[in-house]
Amino acid sequence: MIELGRVWADDEAAALYAYRAPYPHGVFDILERLAVEPRVVLDAGAGTGALARNFPPTFTRIDAVDPSAAMIARGRALPGGDEPRIHWILGRAEDAHLSPPYGLITVGASLHWMRPDEVLPRFRDALAPGAYLAVLDTETTHSGEWHPQIVDVIRRYSPLEHHLETHEMVARDAAQGLIRLVGEERTAPVPFGRSVDDYLRLLGSTSTLSRVSLGSRADAFESECREVFARYELRQIRSSVVGYVAWVTLP
């Protein structure tokens, strides 16, 4: 997975992140409830700032750490990315310069890119007393006969045999004793629609299906996806998005 993470150095892959579904507002309500003093957040693996740019004003500083200069540049240019309370930090969460203590540490769909033996002890030492590490993601549900066929196409092209969902990763890490799961919560579902072109851009924003990863197979992958959409005369892809938050402590 860490090798696939090199995709994010690519400017096109970083730009396509904008086509991902945003975190539902309910996620930030949960994070506000979990945070302790000081109201300072470390957003590790921040990417383009899907979390960092949307924290409510009760958080006084957000240290947004990411190893990709392309992602940070894109994040700075997006709405809210130039707020003075956001400190963009280029580097890996494992060894970037940090300014603890943090009343909350967030990892939004990024913990799997990190080396747990290095990063988890660092997070533990950076947390304020009583503070949590929050692991987040979005979970998208589609309806319609077309979706299993798209999944079949994705499975044939993806270099990963099994994609571990974030909640599955949390359960695995808790079972291995790497983290202590305190609680989990999901937001109410939010409807989300996009065009077929934007849905394909969304797929291109993933590490496994980006043009960087697919290489010479990228055009064939897009063509097969478009064949499925044409078969069902789809122009809009409608889905339901739920925000997932798990909060943990570190042994």
Describe this protein's structure:
- The chain has one domain: Vaccinia Virus protein VP39 (Rossmann fold, 3-Layer(aba) Sandwich), CATH 3.40.50.150.
- It is 34% helix and 23% strand.
- It is built from nine helices and eight strands.
- The protein has helices spanning 11-16, 25-34, 69-77, 116-126, 146-157, 166-175, 196-204, 211-214, 218-231, and strands spanning 40-44, 61-66, 86-90, 104-108, 133-142, 180-186, 190-195, 236-249.
- Strands 1, 2, 3, 4, 5, 6, 7 and 8 form an eight-stranded mixed beta sheet that branches.
- Helix 5 packs antiparallel against helix 9 (218-231).
Protein traits:
251 residues, alpha/beta, Rossmann fold, eight-stranded mixed sheet, 8 strands, disordered N terminus
